[in-house]
Design goal:
Elements (H helix, E strand, L loop, with lengths): L10 H8 L3 E4 L17 E3 L2 E4 L5 H13 L2 H6 L8 H15 L7 H11 L8 H7 L2 H9 L3 E2 L6 E2 L8
Parallel strand pairs: 1-3
Antiparallel strand pairs: 2-3, 4-5
Helix pairs in contact: 2-4, 4-5, 4-7
Length: 165
């Protein structure tokens, strides 16, 4: 399980800044503000992602993807609970995997392996199977909200947050 503190220095900041959002590092052992699950899970408050060095990189990307996928009203009021419905949650999962390819020191294969090791299960079973075979609803949702586009290399983030062009 790759931890946020094991990423190259400045890598997570660079990705978060590309979307125009904020990142705050919390000292090891301190509670993470805005963490829904507690422990080492990433947190969100407003337009800010909170992580500790021991936060799993995929957890950081998941909560960050929630911030990207929220509409402006929910994002402004966000505090721990992203409040997403099932389809948006699928979109968040898909986007976090795409974003892994844009996070120095991480990539989608490592993200999928870490998500699987974490115990995340989808309708078709393993995260890799879902991502490759059953993510149509997530892809449609992300495209409809202009959060991904489709160059020849396949779906990739637009590096915009929902509601901003």
């Amino acid at each position: 399980m790759l931890r946020a503190g094991e990423l190259p220095r400045g890598a997570l900041e660079a990705l978060v800044e590309r979307f125009g959002l904020n990142l705050v590092w919390v000292n090891g052992g301190e509670p993470i503000p805005g963490s829904f699950w507690g422990d080492d899970e990433a947190g969100l408050i407003g337009e800010t992602l909170y992580v500790r060095p021991d936060t799993a990189a995929h957890s950081a990307l998941h909560e960050f993807a929630h911030l990207v996928c929220m509409d402006a009203g929910r994002r402004a009021a966000a505090q721990a609970d992203a409040g997403s419905d099932d389809i948006e949650e699928e979109a968040v999962c898909y986007l976090q995997i795409l974003m892994a390819d844009h996070l120095d020191g991480f990539d989608r294969e490592r993200a999928l392996a870490d998500i699987q090791a974490w115990g995340y299960v989808f309708r078709v079973g393993a995260p890799t199977d879902w991502f490759r075979e059953d993510a149509d609803r997530a892809i449609d949702w992300l495209a409809r909200h202009d959060l991904i586009h489709f160059p020849e290399t396949g779906p990739t983030p637009t590096f915009r947050i929902r509601g901003h062009s």
